[in-house]
Amino acid sequence: MADNNMIQEPVMHIDDDAPKKKELSERQLEKLAAKRKGPKYKTSLGDKLISVITYIVYSFFAFVCVYPVYYIFINTISSNDLSQRGKILFYPQEVHFNNYKQVMKLPGLLHAFEISLLRTVIGTIFTVITAAFLGYMFTRETLWKKKLWYRFIVATMYFNAGIIPWYLTMNNLGLINNFWVYILPMMVQPFYIVLCKTFVESVPKELQEAAEIDGAGTLRIFWSIIRPVIKPILATIAVFAAVNQWNAFQDTLLLVTDDKLHTLQYKLWNYINSASSLKAAISSVGSSASAQQALAQSATTTSVRMTVTIIVITPIILVYPFFQRYFTKGIMIGAVKG
Amino acid sequence: MGKAKKEMDLLTVSALKKKRKGKIEFLYILPFVLLVAVFSYYPLWGWIYAFFDYKPPAPLEMKNFVGLKWFKYMIDDPVKVKEVLGVIRNTFAMSGISLLFSWFPMIFAVFLNEIKCVPFKKFVQTVTTLPNFISWILVYSVAFSVLSSTGAVNQILQSLGVLDKPKLFLQSSDHVYFTQWLWLTWKNAGWAAIMYIAAITGIDEELNEAARIDGASRMQIIRHITLPSILPTYFVLLMLNIANFLSNGMEQYLMFYNAFNKERIRVLDLYVYQLAFGGTGLYSLSTAISILKSVVSVTLLAVTNKVSKLIRGEGFI
User: Fold this and answer.
1) Interatomic CA distance for residues A150 and A153, integer angstroms
2) Is the terminal CB of chain A with fewer CB neighbours within 10 Å at N or C?
3) A300 and chain B in contact, CB less than 8 A
4) Under an 8 A CB cutoff, do A153 and B276 touch?
5) Tens digits of per-residue pLDDT, A245-262?
6) Distance from CA of A14 to the nearest CA of B (A)
């Protein structure tokens, strides 16, 4: 049945393709048709219609993803007065950067930025080195009870004790209100280890064997032979780990009450949730603007929220285009593994 | 004779050496094994709190042992029964809608692939994938800014005459399941599509070429070549989704949670969190629900893996 369709129907299409093409004089369609690559074959009206609809629908999807962030950005650099009244929709007006200056002065915000940055950098380094080393070790045939330990680690992907046991564990370990709570629990990530192991397995064994004959030990082989070869996958993992660290929120929410260890994400959540504490924070900053500037440039709860949002989102947006190929590669290798 | 013995000795010596080396290598990974033991296995010990009446500052004592009280409490106490049923309904609704629309990223990928203008295609792919990498707090902040009474959506709808006064979209109990699905899709669809795009790229170009020469239209190529080639990928992801049926995660719902939508947005993960940290102090009940959830989840995972093995010949674990 299916095969029949495929062979017969199109013949009809080709037959009545020529007259329809003349009828369809819309320039856009012509252009789209012209842009098509590959060997020449006739396109039917239906195909062109699909093209047009596809372009419209995907433009809409792209718009829906881009516009909200753009909207917030133009509001942070426009007159706060106009922004409050919802007048800034498509382009900035009365541009100023006072919002950013004032937000920097909010108590604890700069510190929260440092904490976020610190956990991202340290956490990523620890996670990547762990993944690389364990991924390599689990390819060593000599390793004592290799399979057992590998399963011991990978099995943890599939269960979770729950919030209370998690909290109690951290409490027993003295990690509540401790910076290392951001690093240590995230260090051994089974999924990354599986990725590394798969990659190391694809490296020719002869490389290791040759080094072994030359007298290199397990660690030496890791550092001098394996590490340089698996750099691509490490870059991918680093990007994933960094994004996870930057976005992490639950650990701060559950395990950290000390203001000094709050991350940027947590601060933003606080600002959104309690307008009163935000107002207090704003008034403590005071306004450096002169009287006539005051209304247009002094911080409001909305302006602070939006500005902090842009500050938190910017690192991701800046980094993203450069690392997109790594993201894609990561998900692909993951897919192969299933 | 002697030569053979010498060789045997050498063999055992090298075997012994290997064994010793293996033990030393184990010492290298021991710290990491310990980390896993401490952070992933040790918390399981905390499950015993579900069988006690636990009041935090006081240490756990045998006299507080209550057996299955908390498990019974869930089905005996009429107020709790109603609450738990509501939570289960929400969890099923949110996961159900996700399953129902799980084809969306696939279709998204299929038609994205139909776009021949490469820069446009790249642009769409980039911007639709980006939301996956921002946190739920940021997503909520974006929603909050765009949907507030003076936000873009209200302003635009009012100037178009669709609304005559601002509508508070977030402070509403209407369509909570669907709007939450929309946000989830906004964040994830582009990313989920990458897997399918990869699968489509893997299709043999000669197949498409042959179909075109035979005069197949684009829709026919999609129906008879593209879709069948990526269905296995869809199947695996569907199975994984079913395995995660009870785990919606709590961050999204914690962000969007408010007094207006709380009856509809409270999913299992959020409920467990609120029982523990929401001021009610029902720590043991929270743990009991965690246990039930874990047991059901692991069972689901085993079942879907088995189904996958039966149908595809291989599992995904």
Assistant:
1) 5
2) N
3) no
4) no
5) 999 999 999 999 998 999
6) 7
